[in-house]
Here is the input.
Amino acid sequence: MATAKELEFAATFQRRWRNYAGARALSFITILVGIGLRGADFAAPAWTYRSLFVVGFLGLFLSRRFAQYKCPRCDTTPVNNGEGFLPSPVKCVVCNLAFRQ
Ligand SMILES: [Zn+2]
Here is the structure.
């Protein structure tokens, strides 16, 4: 049985995870749009897709920090114990906090 504090930690982590996943997905879409512009038939100016690449990759690298994507209890970044591009960790590998109730 989870305590109220653990439920609060889990809710905090879920919020952080949503922010992290959203920022990552948005960055990825930005990069895809940049790739599309680069390969488009019409001549898109180079600065358009270059700036999209810069914004997209910055977003990918900074999303973890901006979303404070780490365990709310022990402050460690969760190891990918989920699957895929946007893994959703089940519990903290350090303090064993359940991220999902
Ligand atoms: Zn932890």
Notes: The chain has one domain: 1-101. The helical segments are 4-38, 46-66. Residues 71, 73-74, 76, 92, 94-95, 97 surround zinc ion (CB under 6 Å). The CA atoms of residues 68 and 99 lie 15 Å apart.
